[in-house]
Amino acid sequence: MMKRIASYIISGIIGGAIVTGSFFLLGFDERQPIKIEHVSGTPAVSAVYTTDKEGDIVPLNFTDVAKEVMPSVVHIKSTQILNVQNYQYRSIPDPFRHFFDDDIFERFFGLPFESPSPSPQQPRGPQTRVGTGSGVIISEDGYIVTNNHVIDNADDIEVTLQDNRVLKAKVIGTDPSTDIALIQIRAGDLDPLPLANSDEVEVGEWVLAVGNPFNLNSTVTAGIISAKGRNINILHNQNAIESFIQTDAAINPGNSGGALVNLRGGLVGINTAIASPTGAYAGYGFAVPANIVSKVVDDLLKYGSVQRGYLGLMIRDVDGNLAREKDLDVTSGVYVDSISENSAAGDAGVKVGDVITQVNETRVKSTAELLEIIGRHHPGDKVKLKINRFGKELDFDVVLRNSEGETKPLHKEERDVLTILGVELEEVDKEAARRIGIEGGVKITKLKEGKLKRSTDVREGFIITKVNGNSVRSVKGFVNQLEKIKGGVFLEGVYEDYPGKYYYAFGM
């Protein structure tokens, strides 16, 4: 069974019949210092067509490109250990179900939250959930790029090379906002794939998709670039950047994390999703552009996490209807709907109602294009925005900030536990603890972007009383406990205004 993300339905009428379909991530679930080479210009492999004696063009031949690329694409098997034990948890009243992510809970602890102790028919002890996908070798040091959803929450990652070597891999870093992950194997005699400049990719250009659909290793398909800058709303992350390359090269479950290459043998994208009414290939696939991949990889290796600059704006696409509604002088670009607190663009002079038409020297026609360009920059970088303000062209220099409103990139060792979790905490005083009926704890006073918000449905006001069964009495004690944990985290606590105990699980 595929990991389906039915965030919304595509509907259309073809030949009088109504066709509906959904977007799917491509991971296949069997249960149902680095040097990155770049390539451009002169082809890295021999020509893909020739002419006969009369000068007529001989049909396209992709064999040289395929031979060049296939050794760089690997098969990935990710295994998750589900340890079913004889735990008993109180069931959750319906009004409070929204506080829990049952899927996260099940993945970490092996049984649904509302389930009583396993029945005699249920297996006990360790069980496994296995998923497969693809990856691309990008350096001789064994660094491999894949999709985050291929290796997410895996306890064991196994990589099979084209020469049938099977190796264990470790996770170097992940970026859920682009669905990119970086893993590493220890091996010699590797064939890294050079990265191409995805900005230079043209609609109509031939590309090959290489991966392992349905566990069919080393599969190559051909197609063209159908579109660029596609936003399909498939990444459920507040800071998601979706500016996919769309292709009609056939990709299926298991292609996730595989290569989309041009005819020079350069990586132009990482195959990630398809649009389909059935979950199998139906004509449209989507890949994360190589320029985004390169930025994510560089950040993960240098900082330990992705350092992304933000304008601090709420935006939407400009079209003819919006232009008429807002009395705009342009029919394409990015409309500034509102300005966030501590906004970099707002402080530079951008106002609500402005239309962003250009970033530096690049024209932007959609929010996807704007987010992709800005997302490649770091906090502290300066960008020049060209604004159309009711017919008048204006330029603004904006110094980008991170999600915390700061302009300095943070190295991994500088990011404390609370920043990673995305919370502000305060200790519960003795009087409040007595009134609630607990011995002590720490209360979430502010919930920001971070692991807790992404992985659970915890709310502000939650009082943490235990971490992995150990009591919590102070913020310092909470941080000290979290710093020692390398795997799953299980929070127990209460809400002051709701009865009973509540539990949240996530991974560090």
List the helices and strands and how they pair.
Elements: E1 2-14, E2 17-29, E3 38-39, H1 63-69, E4 73-84, H2 102-109, E5 125-137, E6 143-147, H3 148-151, E7 156-160, E8 166-175, E9 180-185, E10 195-196, E11 206-211, E12 219-230, E13 244-247, E14 259-262, E15 267-276, E16 284-289, H4 290-302, E17 313-317, H5 320-326, E18 334-339, H6 344-348, E19 355-359, E20 362-363, H7 367-375, E21 382-389, E22 392-399, H8 417-421, E23 423-427, H9 430-436, E24 442-447, H10 451-455, E25 462-467, E26 470-471, H11 475-483, E27 488-495, E28 502-507
Parallel strand pairs: 3-10
Antiparallel strand pairs: 1-2, 2-5, 2-15, 4-5, 4-7, 5-6, 6-9, 7-8, 8-9, 11-12, 11-14, 12-13, 13-16, 14-15, 15-16, 17-18, 18-19, 19-20, 19-21, 21-22, 23-24, 24-25, 25-26, 25-27, 27-28
Task: Provide a descriptive summary of the structure in words.
Helices cover about 15% and strands about 35% of the residues. The chain is an alpha+beta fold and about 500 residues long. The longest helix is centred in the middle third of the chain and has 13 residues, at about 290-300. The chain has eleven helices and 28 strands. Mean pLDDT is about 80; it is low at about 1-20, about 40-45 and about 85-120.
